[in-house]
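Have a close read of this protein, sequence plus structure tokens, and explain what the tokens say about the fold. Thanks in advance:
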Amino acid sequence: MKQIVYDFSNYLRQEKGLSLLTVRGYTSDIEDFIKFLEKRKREIKEIDYPVVREYLRTLMGKNRRSSTIARKTSSLRGFFRFLNSRNLLKNFPVLALRCPKLRRKIPSFLSEEEVQRLLDEIRGDGFSFQRDKAMLELLYATGIRIAELVGLDIDDIDFNAELVKVKGKRNKERMVPVGKYAIDALKEYLKWREKKISGEIKALFVNKFGERISDRSARERLKIYIRKVGIDKNITPHTLRHSFATHLINRGADLRAVQELLGHERLSTTQIYTHITPSRLKEVYTRAHPRA
């Protein structure tokens, strides 16, 4: 069964074009399911609807969150399609395997004032600080994912046109505008990078050894500055993506344009950002209601 999981992982990466992080998540879910089968002495060809429902019931019995069960169900659907395509599993009713319905939560985000505080109040000097400052500015300026950020090469930044070429999910490319603050931060960082790093290295953001900075390292570095500023919220790099989308829509940006900027395949995914903050709601009410 280990070979099947290995082949499935390669299939996701090479044929489906999923990111390494997504592949790891899917693979981990399937490894968990395989352990369940082995405990019950079931082979791949013996997978049927009752055994899958039993597996999902065990997850519910462990008080797993609905979002976790939905993700694992999605992983199973992908795995069963893969098995079908390789003639390893026949006649399994994939479409009958439904994900539990989830309540869509409003994404956490920072106010414009909080973002300004985060980006303007961080202090430091030297190569590492200038790199981290540029990463923060670029995350908010473009709304790109952290995986997309660390995957950027120097040639992906067009300083004249103030655009960045982003490779998103399933290797789809999109062009995203970059604001002046991020452009200035990038230029300053590249001066320090040139002094620190020798040789032809394509990666835009690198560590002290001249290697492309990892997703995990970038997250840890950014958390340092988030804690220093002392904003009393659970902030992650993805919070800046949520803030980017929220602020654009609150200022009247077209939803489909925001969809393109974020790299969403479906408009419904972008629509979660159409919430209106209480202060914005009050402002509109005061301006529009005749007896406000």
The longest helix spans residues 20-39. DSSP finds 13 helices and three strands in the chain.
